[in-house]
């Protein structure tokens, strides 16, 4: 993402209000807090730990990664099932590197399915099978979606990846462009999530550093909207020339 005026103009294209930004900041902070609380519960209370879960998944052999990839893709299509916890859980099970590629595969498949469902059958089908609130979110994404905004929404996934994928399908964006932007812009977040997940299993300090970095990464654009001041148009009084 380009710095300075270019970044500000791209962000402004998303038309996120200050109230919405503050709400999303709260969502990110609550999500990170729940993540930490869940981690502590697993460590201190649960009879299972990360290694037990990893052993269970590894016991599935060849089918474990395939089940994860398929489940991740289906969860995107069956919106609004949350997909955010899945990459983190995968990193604790498969390790950071493998989880990154498994999650990327699931993301590509799920995003493609959402895109082509919307492209083939259009908004009426989405309205018939998806919640009205979610369809409204798809409409909002589609109304603002261009390549630059798509890049931002993938880079900072504070909006649903499924809603953006459905929204892209009802716009003129070409599939290859959509998928290229999806893969490239999703990579930084997935890398950070994989680092956190790997750290939860092996290195708690690394997990803490990764979690702080991920939180800062997600909050960056939201803080821009929350703190910016709208420019007001000043009335200009035309003074007639002195003759």
Architecture overview:
- The chain has 243 residues and is mainly α.
- The chain has a domain at 56-218.
- It has eleven helices and no strands.
- Helix 4 runs parallel beside helix 6.
- The chain starts with a helix and ends in a 16-residue tail after the last helix.
- Residues 1-13 and 231-241 have low confidence and may be disordered.
Residue-averaged pLDDT, rounded? 75
Rg calc: 21 Å
Q: What is the H/E order?
A: HHHHHHHHHHH
Number of helical regions: 11
What share of residues is helical? Answer: over 70%
- Uncertain segments: 1-13, 231-241
How many distinct beta strands? Answer: 0
Largest sheet: none
* Secondary-structure class: mainly alpha
Q: What is the terminal separation in angstroms?
A: 53 Å
Strand content: under 5%
Overall body shape: globular
Question: What features would you highlight for this structure?
Answer:
243 residues, 11 helices, disordered C terminus
Brief summary of the model shown:
This protein has 11 helices and no strands.
How are the SSEs placed, and which strands pair?
Blueprint: H1 5-12, H2 18-44, H3 50-58, H4 63-77, H5 85-94, H6 96-129, H7 132-144, H8 147-155, H9 161-169, H10 175-202, H11 204-227
Helix pairs in contact: 2-11, 4-6, 5-6, 5-10, 6-9, 6-10, 7-9, 8-10, 10-11
